[in-house]
C-alpha cells in the first residue's frame, strides 16, 4: 500500500513515540542546544528542562527537601546531597590522571586539573 512504506524517518518517529516523556525532552534538548523554554517567573532565568527550573525555584523559596541522614544538613538538589555525603564517608572516587590525588566531587577534580594545566603552561613558557 502506498504511504505504508517504512522509511528511516517513520522508524525514527515510531521509536521517538516509544520513549518516555523525559527521554523525549532529552532528545529535544540535544536537537536544539541552547534552547531554554522553561523560564523562572521570579528572575527570568531560562532552563532547558522543567526539572532544572523546579530545582532553581528552590533558590527563591528557600526549600531544601534533600536532607543528610548523617548530620541533618539540607540541600536544594539531590546531587548536592550526594556529594555532601561523601564528606562523611571520606570517599574520593574522582582520581587525577596526572598525580595520585583523588577528590570527592568532579568539580574539585576539575579545579585540581586546572592547577596542572597552569603549571604545564608555565613550564612551556620557560618559568619554573
Automatic annotation (TrEMBL):
<keyword id="KW-0862">Zinc</keyword>
<keyword id="KW-0238">DNA-binding</keyword>
<feature type="domain" description="C2H2-type">
    <location>
        <begin position="66"/>
        <end position="93"/>
    </location>
</feature>
<dbReference type="GO" id="GO:0000981">
    <property type="term" value="F:DNA-binding transcription factor activity, RNA polymerase II-specific"/>
</dbReference>
<keyword id="KW-0677">Repeat</keyword>
<protein>
    <recommendedName>
        <fullName>C2H2-type domain-containing protein</fullName>
    </recommendedName>
</protein>
<comment type="similarity">
    <text>Belongs to the krueppel C2H2-type zinc-finger protein family.</text>
</comment>
<dbReference type="InterPro" id="IPR013087">
    <property type="entry name" value="Znf_C2H2_type"/>
</dbReference>
<keyword id="KW-0479">Metal-binding</keyword>
<keyword id="KW-0805">Transcription regulation</keyword>
<dbReference type="InterPro" id="IPR036236">
    <property type="entry name" value="Znf_C2H2_sf"/>
</dbReference>
<dbReference type="Pfam" id="PF00096">
    <property type="entry name" value="zf-C2H2"/>
</dbReference>
<dbReference type="GO" id="GO:0005634">
    <property type="term" value="C:nucleus"/>
</dbReference>
<keyword id="KW-0863">Zinc-finger</keyword>
<feature type="domain" description="C2H2-type">
    <location>
        <begin position="38"/>
        <end position="65"/>
    </location>
</feature>
<dbReference type="GO" id="GO:0003677">
    <property type="term" value="F:DNA binding"/>
</dbReference>
<keyword id="KW-0539">Nucleus</keyword>
<dbReference type="GO" id="GO:0008270">
    <property type="term" value="F:zinc ion binding"/>
</dbReference>
<keyword id="KW-0804">Transcription</keyword>
Amino acid at each position: 500500500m502506498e504511504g505504508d512504506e517504512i522509511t528511516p524517518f517513520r522508524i525514527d518517529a515510531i521509536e521517538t513515540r516509544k520513549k518516555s516523556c523525559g527521554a523525549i525532552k532529552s532528545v529535544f534538548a540535544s536537537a536544539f542546544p541552547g534552547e531554554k523554554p522553561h523560564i523562572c517567573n521570579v528572575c527570568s532565568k531560562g532552563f532547558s528542562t522543567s526539572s532544572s527550573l523546579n530545582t532553581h525555584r528552590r533558590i527563591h523559596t528557600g526549600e531544601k527537601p534533600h536532607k543528610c541522614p548523617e548530620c541533618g544538613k539540607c540541600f536544594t538538589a539531590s546531587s548536592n546531597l550526594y556529594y555532601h555525603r561523601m564528606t562523611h564517608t571520606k570517599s574520593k572516587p574522582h582520581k587525577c590522571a596526572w598525580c595520585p590525588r583523588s577528590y570527592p566531587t568532579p568539580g574539585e577534580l576539575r579545579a585540581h586539573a586546572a592547577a596542572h594545566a597552569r603549571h604545564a603552561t608555565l613550564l612551556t613558557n620557560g618559568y619554573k
